[in-house]
Amino acid sequence: MTDALPRTRKRTKIMAAHKSTALSCFASGIALCMICASPVRAAAPLEPETDYTEKLPPLGPHWTLVATGNDAYTLYDADKAKLMGTVPADFESNIAVAPDRHAFYVATTLWTRGDHGDREDFLQEYDSSTLTLTHEIAVPPRALAVFKQQDLGLSNDGRWAFLFDMTPTTRVTVVDLHADKVATTVDIPGCALSFPWKSGGFSSLCGNGGLTNVAYDGKSATITHTAPFFDANEAPVFEQSPVDPVNGVAYFITYDGRVFETKLGPNAKPAAPWGLAEAAGEPPAGRGVQELAWRPGGVQPFAYSSSQQRLYVLMHVGHYWSHKDPANDVWVINTHTHKAVARYHLPAPAVAISVSQDASPQIYAVTGGMHEPGKLTVIDAKTGKIVHDIDAGARPSTVVAGM
Questions:
Q1: Among 135, 121, 129, which residue's Cα sits nearest to residue 176?
Q2: For 325-365, how does the pLDDT look when each residue is reduced to its tens digit (9 = 90+)?
Q3: What gap in Å lies between CA 394 and CA 67, rounded to an integer?
Q4: Which of 187, 200, 288, 300 could be disulfide-bonded to 399 (CB atoms 3.0-4.6 Å)?
Q5: Where are the domains of the chain?
Q6: pTM of the entire structure?
Q7: Considering just the CA atoms, what is the radius of gyration of the chain in Å?
């Protein structure tokens, strides 16, 4: 009996403890219920988000595009050295600015599996105020090469785009930009590229030293040819030779610095050549492999200002066949008098130039080496003064796209 009493008291204490815990939990539950039952202030309703795209102001006269990295062209306000946006385009794409400056056009090629698969070629249109893709036109396979302005030309009225094709024969695809469709393709055997006329068509450079001229009226193409005027083996013409779009005059420039002014059209006839070196009072450049002389060179060595009637040329001292060498100088040539009116020395070698088309022009030069990202150097075209030197990461193997 004495042994049982302690066990009974222990059990009583345990039961009392359990009862106390239960009462505590019950009381806590009542308190929780009271809290939950009390009114709670409702959260303020969330305002729905509205999608929008920021718009750029109208393109200024000193805005320019420069190739950057391997997948974009960057738009700069050169007056402010300010980055304004980017347009998608890889190093094999071609880009052009609509004459009314309301759109950018990009000719591009895609594969369904990245670097292989089914091939698709497009001419894409980007709104210049939002940089958004607005139209995408399927086109025949185009020529694939690093960016060259003469691979994609636009007519002065903004109606037609001319895409150079080489798959496998050479031809030009004419795209109706108003109807957003391919209008026709024109075979140009033995010739390449497109140099748009003032109106009505384009010309192409040919391996025999002449031009093929294609008149297009929106229905059919009429083809004519010029007699050879340069030696494609001994003194080739730069594929990057510039065109004055306002007057429809091309300046076909040979590796040794001879300039053939040509009024483009169905009856194009290159004029007698004049020399770049002679325009600056220098001895004419010869064709000797070891002969040092002033010569044009670079990836995009020429630019033309229609408003000023000035030809801008990257010049360097080198031997013949140094036509891709970077240049330390820009020469400004009056195309009426065939005289150099200025010679500007650059802070670093340049591989490409462009020029604005206003009454106070700026020169845009990609400076730096051929194998590393370069700067965008902004130059006052009338004084040669450096306005800005922008660390743009500019692609050295391509060009500044003129605006």
A1: 135
A2: 999 999 999 999 999 999 999 999 999 999 999 999 999 99
A3: 6
A4: 300
A5: 63-401
A6: 0.86
A7: 34
Q: Are the C-beta atoms of 156 and 245 separated by less than 8 Å?
A: yes
Token pair listed for 222? 């009429």
pLDDT band at 84 (very low <50, low <70, confident <90, very high): very high
Peptide bond just before 168 cis, omega within 30 deg: yes
CA triple 197-198-202, angle to 5 deg? 15
- Please determine, looking at this structure, whether the domain spanning 63-401 carries the CATH number 2.130.10.10: yes
Cα distance between residue 349 and residue 98, in whole Å: 30
Across the beta sheet with 258-263, the strand order is 243-244, 249-253, 258-263, 274-275
Contacts made by residues 49-54, CB under 8 angstroms, sequence distance 24+: 53/130, 53/132, 54/130
Strands 362-367 and 374-380, bridge-based pairing: antiparallel
pLDDT at 19: 40
* Amino acid letter, residue 228: P
Among all chains, which residue has been given the structure tokens 């450049």? 285
